[in-house]
Amino acid sequence: MTTFLTLFSGSSGNVVYLGTERGAVLIDCGMSGRQVLDALNAAGLDAGSLRAMLITHEHSDHVKGAGVLSRKLGLPIYATEGTWAGMEEALGDVPLNRRIAIRAGESFFLNDLEIAPFSIPHDANDPVGYRIFTRRASVAVATDLGYFSPEVENAVTGADLVLLESNHDPDLLKQNPHYPQRLKTRILGKKGHLSNASGAGAAVKLAQTGTRHLLLGHLSSENNTPELAYRTTHAALTGAGARVGSDVTLNVAARYRASFLYHIG
Predict the structure, then answer these.
(1) Phi/psi at 29 (5° precision)
(2) Could you report the per-residue pLDDT of 44-56, keeping only the tens digit for each?
(3) Cα–chain center distance at 150
């Protein structure tokens, strides 16, 4: 049985947990080490079961607590060489034997998991998403996407569960008086973040090719709401003929707490 949940998800910090009978991994560690440990405890999960951390890219909301947790729990960190170069200073001292370099397109094995990193279009140093295969299921983490590229689509198609970005509503973003135009342009660009509508279009494609569980994540705190993200994707799925709740489940990951514990396979 595969256990999957987000501990944190949003522009403030991202941490994903995936576990099997043989251990668990974190995908990203974008909150403090203490916050992550507290969240694991609150969710009834044993930090001692963790075997590794998989990092998507070097931005602070994905790596903030990775160095501390690696040192505290003795966890190896897997990331591309570009991501290592970008996050090395922020992580602090990580022993060489815990610094594992990976490449997009090259799968590797960790206990009973096959982990397949894939390139994502985002403004970072060689960022990746992950599709993780267990004995009976597969899940994918596909956030921080400027657009739902053919490479991303090919990598995640057929996954039983996909954590999919639904970052912002373009109108709210454009009207936001706190964001400079430079930042708005970055978010809306092809190496920025998926809008609700773009995420909804991706969700339809995934549902049509066998994905049974969709979890919307990485929502902006200022330019989106959980209700708006959910409503946009629900309408797209329904319009495409999918029955939400029976053909496919749809949920929105919480920003500051564990949510929607999935048992798959």
Answers:
(1) -150, 70
(2) 999 999 999 999 9
(3) 18
- CB-CB contact of 43 with 254 (8 Å): no
The residue whose two tokens read 């799968």 is: 107
End-to-end CA gap in the chain: 5
Residue range 191-201, pLDDT digits in tens:
999 999 999 99
The SS3 call for residue 125 is coil
With a threshold of 0.90, does the pTM exceed it?
A: yes
What single string gives the DSSP state of each residue in 38-66? HHHHHTT--GGGEEEEE-S--SHHHHTTH
**Cα gap 32→68, rounded to integer Å:** 8
Rounded CA-CA distance 163/140 in Å is 6
> Has residue 258 got a pLDDT over 90?
yes
Q: With 90 as the cut, is the pLDDT of residue 176 above it?
A: yes
Q: How far apart are CA 122 and CA 144, in angstroms?
A: 6
Q: Give me the pLDDT at residue 239, please.
A: 98
CA 243 to chain centre: 25
DSSP element (H, E) containing 50: strand 50-54
Are 53 and 16 within 8 A, CB to CB?
A: no
Q: Are 68 and 155 in contact (CB under 8 A)?
A: no
Q: Which residues of 76-93 are buried (b: 16+ CB within 10 A; e: fewer)?
A: bbbbbebbbebbeeebee
Q: Which of 250, 52, 78, 221 is nearest to 163 (CA)?
A: 250
Tokens of 198: 């773009």
At residue 150's C-alpha, the angle toward residues 240 and 231, to 5°, is 35
- CA nearest 72: which of 36, 104, 107, 39? 36
